[in-house]
Amino acid sequence: MVIGATVSGNEPLARRMARSALALEFADFDPEVVAKAKVCLIDFLSGAFEAGGHPWSRQAIAAAHPVGNGATIIGTSRLASGADAAFANAVMGHGLVREDMHAASISHHGVVIWPTLLALSERAPLRGTTLLAAAIIGYETGARIGRALFNSDLARLYRPTGLVAPLGAALAGSFALGLSEQAATSAIAIAANTSSGLNEWPHGGGSEMYFHPGFAASNALRAIALAEAGALASETILEGEAGLFAAFRRQRAPDDIKLFAGGEAEIMAVYNKPAPACNFAQTASQAALRVSHELAETESVERIVIRAPDAAVRYPGCEAKGPYRNALQAKMSIPFSVSATLVRGEIDEENYPSLADPEILRLIAATDLQSDAAFTAAFPAKQGADVTVHLRGGKIIRHSLSDVVAATPAEIRHRFRAAAAHVIGEDRARRLEQAIDGCEHLGDAGVIAASCRLEPPGQILRTAS
Questions:
Q1: From CA 241, how far away is CA 49, in angstroms rounded?
Q2: To 10 degrees, what angle do helices 212-228 and 82-93 make?
Q3: Is the dihedral of CA 288, 293, 297, 303 positive or negative?
Q4: Closest CA to 289 of 401, 409, 374
Q5: pLDDT at residue 9, as a whole number
Q6: What is the secondary structure of 83-146 as a DSSP string?
Q7: CB atoms near residue 396 (< 10 Å)
Q8: Which of 32-36, 378-382, 453-457 has the lowest mean pLDDT?
Q9: What SS3 string covers 168-223?
Q10: Dihedral of the CA atoms 156, 160, 163, 164 (nearest 10)?
Q11: Element spanning 167, H or E
Q12: pLDDT at 458
């Protein structure tokens, strides 16, 4: 991978990042990086199609104001302003809690970047190569800032996605539209002023978590529009005395945050979740599934010990043992995810509505979640977990994984095909997947968003060119 333009260490961080990103071209990215971006887009759309009927998705759609020549709200026939469509699409993409994950920044960048870029692609023709390059830049920007910004103390209070993903999406959109260095710098800075998202929802049982990416995507679009119109913002928004790091981390920013440092793309550190649950519940659930294969029945279980990285144990809601007011609290809880997996012998969406299942609740009460020093030392490069089940009579069943086993591209495509076909039909789902796979050959990437739309009878979709 070719790195962007050389920048001066005396310039503000936001300007350095903008200059570096704007100097890139699609040809600078290796084939595996481009392939990963396509898989992430397919995974985002999969979640949006599947979660379209959930209450929070319906609420976000209802809040959008119809616009005759606007942007697509996925899985509907409705068009809305770019900001409203991006809000709804981000909420739907996040609606299963199965969005892609960048562990080092504790953030879900895809559910902000893709809604932002899809909305822009319907505003004016955007080449497929530009869409893909912009997305890779967006993941890179948010992930690099998030790596430097977050620790477990900060993540207990503020939702990482809401703090850093708007900046990544703002720079992605600036690249996509070909904005100037000055405008892109201002877009980053304006987006940083919208950083938000409090982590009270796991404690209070609220559903505002689903809306965090929606605010991030719609705010990124407004930041881009303001910068494009000539608005100027503080270039020292990251390192300044009242900038992002001072405000949230309470310490100075690093001297530099380099994009694609060492030729490595952060999108390659993104993994696609196998289970519709919190990132930190993934590996423990997978270890529990292996235990379940050796467990004849759960009635003999006396005690369960789960070991995980300290970041997992301390993240809001991950240690919760109930009572659970809704499925979201269950999806955040490592004890619930492990217990439900042991009882049901599988990991899927149906694990989480059973909030009152007496056997799941009994196992949760018998669970001890512990921080493990080795897993903590390996995190975030690896996200290990260990599940040890003690049975009556003294038998012990234990399974340990050094890292989460991500969903494979084949698994991601399988669930996309099922979810998309259910909403738009098998033929259109197939053509949509083909458009994404051949995205670099699209003259107008807006066909991707348009293909996600339920068209009124007789209306013809845009076609690839």
A1: 43
A2: 150
A3: negative
A4: 401
A5: 56
A6: HHHHHHHHHHHTTTS---EEGGGTB--HHHHHHHHHHHHHHS---HHHHHHHHHHHHHHHHHHH
A7: 10
A8: 453-457
A9: HHHHHHHHHHCCCHHHHHHHHHHHHCCCCCECCHHHHCCCHHHHHHHHHHHHHHHH
A10: 150
A11: helix 160-177
A12: 41
Q: Across all residues in the chain, what is the average pLDDT?
A: 94
Local confidence band at 362 (pLDDT 50, 70, 90 cut-offs): very high
User: What does the block give as tokens for 12?
Assistant: 């503000």
Is residue 4 over pLDDT 50? no
Where residue 306 falls (left for φ over 0; alpha for ψ -120 to 50; beta otherwise) is: beta
The backbone torsions φ and ψ at residue 385, rounded to the nearest 5 degrees and listed phi first, read: -160, 155
Extract the tokens encoding 247: 């405000």
387/398 Cα distance (integer angstroms): 6
Q: Which two tokens stand for residue 318?
A: 């991950």
pLDDT, average across residues 270-285: 94
Strand 101-102, strand 79-80: pairing:
unpaired
142 vs 166: CA distance, rounded Å: 8
Q: For residue 42, what are the contacts with CB-CB under 8 A and spacing of at least 6?
A: 412, 413, 416, 433, 436
Q: Is 448 exposed, middle or buried (0-12, 13-18, 19+ CB in 10 A)?
A: buried
Q: For 41-77, how does the pLDDT look when each residue is reduced to its tens digit (9 = 90+)? A: 999 999 999 999 999 999 999 999 999 899 999 999 9
Structure token digits, residue 8:
């001066």
Longest distance between any two alpha carbons in the chain, whole Å: 73
User: What's the per-residue H, E or C state across 406-451?
Assistant: CCCHHHHHHHHHHHHHHHHCHHHHHHHHHHHHCHHHCCCCHHHHHH
Per-residue pLDDT, 3: 46
Before 202, cis peptide (omega within 30)? no
**Dihedral angle over CA of 407, 411, 414, 415, nearest 10:** -30
- Residue 348's pLDDT is 87
Q: What is the CA radius of gyration of the chain?
A: 22
pLDDT over 90 (residue 164): yes
Residue type, 254: P
Q: Closest Cα to residue 339, out of 401, 380, 389, 402?
A: 389
464: pLDDT strictly greater than 70? no
Distances (CA, A) of 284 to 134, 177, 340, 347, 369: 34, 42, 12, 11, 10
